[in-house]
Amino acid sequence: MNTALEPTAHSLAPIDQAALARLRAKAAAESAVDTWHPKPGDVLEGVIAGSRQATGPFGPQQQMLVRTPNGATIAVWLTKWLIGALRAQNAELGDLVSVTFHGRGTSRTGAQFNRLSVTVLHSGET
Questions:
Q1: Buried (b) or exposed (e) across 78-101, using 16+ Cβ within 10 A?
Q2: How far is the C-alpha of 53 from the C-alpha of 63, rounded, in Å?
Q3: Are 118 and 97 in contact (CB under 8 A)?
Q4: What DSSP state is assigned to residue 110?
Q5: Number of domains observed in the structure of the chain
Q6: How far is Cα 12 from Cα 14, in angstroms, rounded to an integer?
Q7: Residue 109 counted as domain residue
Q8: pLDDT value at residue 76
Q9: Which domain holds residue 43?
Q10: Which of 1, 38, 64, 67 is the most buried (most CB within 10 A)?
Q11: Which residues of 26-59 are buried (b: 16+ CB within 10 A; e: fewer)?
Q12: Is residue 116 part of a domain?
């Protein structure tokens, strides 16, 4: 008796080699992602390559993936402020982004936060 999981000579689908190459490249890129741990004055520049869910010091949170000019992929924690700054500049996949870390700040309520600035250059913009 043949079940759906048992292959037969006529049921094996060929593997698209181009798709397999894209899968391998995606898997390699995802496994080589480093999280940005900036010091005051550090600048992260590159192309917005996507996002991912990761677990950090405050639990599960989204990260923006930035592909740098040297080919590295760096993950940046998407805080409420950073999401707002990216939305205000209509950032999209493929846009160039520059994120500068200015150090830690203290809000009026005494809460600590990361002071950042963000600049977006849209693909095709000069």
A1: beeebeebbeeeebeeebbbebbb
A2: 6
A3: yes
A4: S
A5: 1
A6: 6
A7: yes
A8: 96
A9: 35-121
A10: 64
A11: eeebeeebeeeebeeeeebebbbbbeeeeeeeee
A12: yes
Q: Phi and psi at residue 57, in whole multiples of 5°?
A: -65, -20
Amino acid type, 49: A
CATH of the domain at 58: 2.40.50.360
Q: Stretch 43-56: mean pLDDT, rounded?
A: 92
Q: How far is residue 106's CA from residue 24's CA, in Å, rounded to a whole number?
A: 44
In which band, very low, low, confident or very high, does the pLDDT at 124 lie, cut at 50, 70 and 90?
A: confident
Q: Nearest Cα to 51, choosing from 40, 39, 37, 63?
A: 63
DSSP 8-state symbol, 37 = -
Read off the pLDDT of residues 54-64 as tens digits, 9 standing for 90 and up: 887 778 999 99
pLDDT tens-digit profile of 1-41?
Answer: 555 566 665 677 888 888 888 888 777 666 678 999 999 99
Report pLDDT digits (tens) over 73-114: 999 999 999 999 999 999 999 999 999 999 999 999 998 888
* Domain assignment present for 9: no
